[in-house]
Amino acid sequence: MKRFKFGYLALFLVIQFEMPSSGEAHDYGDALSKAILFFEGQRSGFLPEDQRMRWREHSGMGDGWMYETDLTGGYYDAGDNVKFGFPMAFTTTMLAWSVVEFGDDMPPTELRNSLAAIRWGTDYLLKTVSQPDRIFVQVGDPSIDHNCWERPEDMDTARTVYAIDAPNPASDVAGETAAALAASSIAFRSWDPGYSETLLRNAIKAFQYADNYRGAYTDNGHVRDGACPYYCNFDGYQDELLWGAAWLRRATEEDDFLNYIQGNAKALGAQDNINEFGWENKHAGLNVLVSKEVIEGSMYSLESYKASAESFMCSLIPESPTSQVQYTPGGLIYRPGGSNLQHATSISFLLLVYANYLSRSSQTLTCGGGGTLSNLSPSALRRIAKRQVDYILGHNPKGMSYMVGYSHHFPQRIHHRASSLPSMKDHPNFIACKEGSLYFNSSNPNPNVLVGAIVGGPEEDDEYEDDRADFRKSEPTTYINAPFVGVLAYFLANPDL
Fold first, then answer.
1. Contact predicate 51/43, CB 8 Å
2. Degrees to nearest 5, angle at CA 90 with 88 and 92
3. Is 222 a catalytic residue?
4. Mean pLDDT score of the chain, rounded to an integer?
5. What is the mean pLDDT of residues 453-482?
6. 466 labelled catalytic
7. CA atoms of 155 and 81, how far apart (whole Å)
8. According to the CATH classification, is domain 28-493 in 3.90.420.10?
9. Where exactly are the structural domains of the chain?
10. CA angle 219, 223, 224 (to 5 degrees)
C-alpha cells in the first residue's frame, strides 16, 4: 500500500530557502524518548509486562505454524499487520548504528529503551535464520492484509510464511540481516556479551547464505508475489553484500571481511557513487560506514569508499557545484515517491556520523575543488542535519510537528490500523476485516495516540493534509524512526551548533 520505487535522483535546481523563525527551542530529550517509544506500538507477538504502549496487546501468536516453527515477535513495518523481513532488518541495523555512534549521548534510561527496541528486532531475526540453509523473509499475505482495516489483535487473515531455501537466492535480505545482527552485536557487547556473541555468530551465518547464493530475494517467484510491489528489490542485491561485510568487518575487525570489501568494491558496484540510502539501497550508508577506517585509521586501500562518501556529502550542500538534492521552500530535503521523511531522517543520520568521523581526526570537507567550499568544517554538515530535525519537530511553514505526540500540533489521523481502531480495552468485541472501514473513513482523530511515530510527511511544496487515506503522507514506518533515534541523541547532547 505504501512502498514505492525510489529511483536515483536526477539533478535538480536547488531551491534556496529562508527558514522561518523557530519561536522556541525544541526539546530533543522529549522527542528522543517518544521516537523510541514508537517501536513498542509496532510490536508483534507476546507483549511483556513492562510494555508502555498499553493500548496494544498480544498479536500474531501463531506466526510460523505452517512451518512448525516459532516466528512470533518482530515488528509490523508500518500501518499494516505484515512482517516484512527486508525493512525490519534495515530498521534494526539503524537502531543499532544509532547506539553504536550516539549511545554515549543518550540518557541511561533511553539507552536501555533503545537496546530493548533493538532486541525486539534481533530476537525475531535470529528466528529467521535458525534453520540450516533457510531464511524466513516475511510473515503475512500483504494483498489480503491490505484489503482489511483490522487490529493486529483481531487478525484473521492468512499469516502466510515466505521462506527461501538454498540454493535459491536471498542476498539482499540475508545481507541486511547479517548487517543488523553484526551491528547489534556491537551495541550489546558491553551490556550482554553472551547475547552479543550469539548475534555475531548468526550474522556470519546469514552473510554466508547471502554470498553463497547470490541474487535478489524477489527473484523467487513465490516471494515476489508476496513482497511486490511493497518491498521489491528494484536496485540490486550487491549493495547488501558489501553492507553486510562492512558491518562484519567492524564487528570482528577480521581481515577476511576487509579483503571482501576491498576486493569486491568494483564488481559489486561500490564505485558507482549512488547517492541513495534507505531500506532498499545502502550505497551512501555503506560509503560512510567504510570511510571511518580511512579517516580515522589511514586504511588507504578503502579510499574509493571515502571519496564516494565525500561526494555524497557535497551533493547535500546547496552551494556546492555538485549539489543534487531538492529542498522544499521550507528547507526539507525532498525526494519524490512518497514517505519522504525516510530520506530526511536517514540522510541526517549520515551527515552527523560523517561529521563525527571528520571531527575526531581534525579533518574537513572540500566540495568542488576549492574556493568558498574548501575546508568545510564538520559543523556545516551538522547544520544541514539540524535543519531537517527542527523541520520535522515543527520548525516548518505549517508549524506542525510530524512526530505524533510531540508539541501541541501534530497529525491526528495517521494511516495506521491499530492507532485508528478502538483498543481491545475500549472495544473488546471482535472487529472483522471490513468492519474496520467505518473507522478508516471516519474524520475523527485516531483514538489511540501512536506516540513518537513520524509520518511520511509533506510534499515538495511543504503542504500536508491530515488525511488517513493519504498513506504516502500520513503513514509512519519503522525505518523513518530508526535513524532519527541517533540523530535526536546527538542533538540532545549538542543542542547548540
1. yes
2. 70
3. no
4. 93
5. 97
6. yes
7. 8
8. no
9. 28-493
10. 60
The set of residues, in sequence order, having a beta carbon less than 8 Å from that of 136 and lying 6+ positions away, is: 64, 67, 69, 71, 85, 127, 128, 129, 161, 162, 163
What are the cell numbers at 239? 549493495
* Angle at the Cα of 472 from the Cα atoms of 163 and 13, rounded to 5 degrees: 115
The contacts of residue 122 (CB under 8 Å, 6+ apart) are 92, 180, 181, 184, 199
Helix, strand or coil, per DSSP, at residue 327:
strand
Q: What is the CA radius of gyration of the chain?
A: 21
Name the catalytic one among 415, 416, 459, 462. 415
pLDDT in tens, 369-420: 655 677 889 999 999 999 999 999 999 999 999 999 999 999 999 999 999 9
Q: Does the active-site annotation cover 475?
A: yes
> What CA–CA distance (Å, rounded) separates 390 from 26?
7
Q: Among 10-19, 161-170, 312-321, 452-461, which stretch is predicted with the lowest mean pLDDT?
A: 10-19
The model's pTM is 0.94
pLDDT bucket at 272, cuts 50 / 70 / 90: confident
Surface-to-core class of residue 206, CB atoms within 10 Å of its CB (0-12 exposed, 13-18 middle, 19+ buried): buried
CA atoms within a 13 Å half-sphere pointing along the CA-CB vector of 319: 12
Which tens digits make up the pLDDT trace of 169-217?
A: 999 999 999 999 999 999 999 999 999 999 999 999 999 999 999 999 9
184 with 98: CB under 8 angstroms?
no
Single out the catalytic residue among 225, 466, 467, 470. 466
